[in-house]
Amino acid sequence: MELVEEIAAVRAGRGNPHAMLGEFRRAAVLVPLVEGGLLTGVFGGIRWIHAFTDEAALARFARTRGAPPDRAWEYAAVLGARLLDVIVPEMDGPAGVAVNVADEDGAMLFPPVKGIVPDAVAVDVEHTDRGEESR
Q: What's the superkingdom here (predicted)?
């Protein structure tokens, strides 16, 4: 299944969250670029990187932000795995990925928790002052 289908299946309660995560990690998603960085928003103390499965999903998001229909948005195509494994750990503070946030029935969050992001930046893993996992 493609990422959009995996998200729909999980949201409907008949999907496999692990399969959805695997599909996200393999998928190239579109991440809007603003002022030399990635478009993010903060909600609940988490910095969320906005990512979209295709240009239509990005356009729906742009409309919710009041962008004129003819405005072009600069974006980068990034593998989900790169977002989770490389970019999230480089962010200041807890960060995750919000996919298709303008799609009420198709949005999905990939929060900064163990099994999604590296343990070193997961909010549900205890860390010592040296940044190592406590046991």
A: Bacteria
